[in-house]
Amino acid sequence: MGKRNLTVIREFILLGLPSSAEQQHLLSVLFLCMYLATILGNMLIIVTIGFDSRLHSPMYFFLSNLAFVDICFTSTTVPQMVVNMLTGTKTISFAGCLSQLFFFVSFVNMDSLLLCVMAYDRYVAICHPLHYTATMNLCLCVQLMAGLWFVTCLHALLHTVLTARLSFCASSMIHHFFCDLNPLLQLSCSDVSFNVMIIFAVGGLLAITPLVCILISYGIIFSTVLKITSTQGKQRAVSTCSCHLSVVVVFYGTAIAVYFSPSSSHMPESDTVSTIMYSVVAPMLNPFIYTIRNRDMKRGLQKMLFKCTVFHLSD
Known about the structure:
Elements: E1 11-14, H1 21-51, H2 58-75, H3 78-87, E2 91-93, H4 94-127, H5 132-135, H6 138-164, E3 173-174, H7 181-187, H8 193-225, H9 231-259, H10 268-292, H11 295-314
Parallel strand pairs: 1-3
Antiparallel strand pairs: 1-2
């Protein structure tokens, strides 16, 4: 009898960022500018690496893939958020919500695992330079990327299927700017204990394990760097690694705060801000971090811009 009285929710309302109508328009312009900066910056990384043959190495192969994932990552949530702010339309269908959840989980895990692979690449390059070319060959790099995509898509599919089986019959208002796991679980009138267990077990494995590997890799790297006698070699190693570590701190620091803190400590406003940091701000900052702090990328970018300018003037 109780089941007949349940109202099945077929669409959700994304409440987004708490703000007035005037602030909504200002925020929409801000996020649109951030999105365009993310797209242009990461596209510039991909084009620069493809253009300069000196950047055709495993490190930049993974960096170009990270740039591609960051473009997809932000494109999953930001365009719809901007449209919702401008039009005032905040509804999203149940199918659309699940699709957004699948792609978001896929790309956030891909970011995490790519950062781990990039740390391993730096570990081999600095700690075992004589074996670097043989170890990090093109075949291994392609196999690693294929494996990462398989694992992340499988993990995202698991969460999507488990969420699709839940009943939503209480409220349709999501206190977020996109369909994320925690806000959806809070709305469900089903038992979500298994979903929460999967988040901490499987999700923790895909988030904490890469972070531990990154920390171990850089612990060994810095101990090796301290033994380098050449000042130039030491500065080059530190410059390359500091770029990567800056990205790791911003990404993992905020992501872990959202997904692996106790449910009692979750506040919609703080979770939204933390999510914006790792899903919008971090992808936007990555191109600046990797180009400003990386001499090879700066040279490649200058070379590409110079040739484009010469070609344009010759026409």
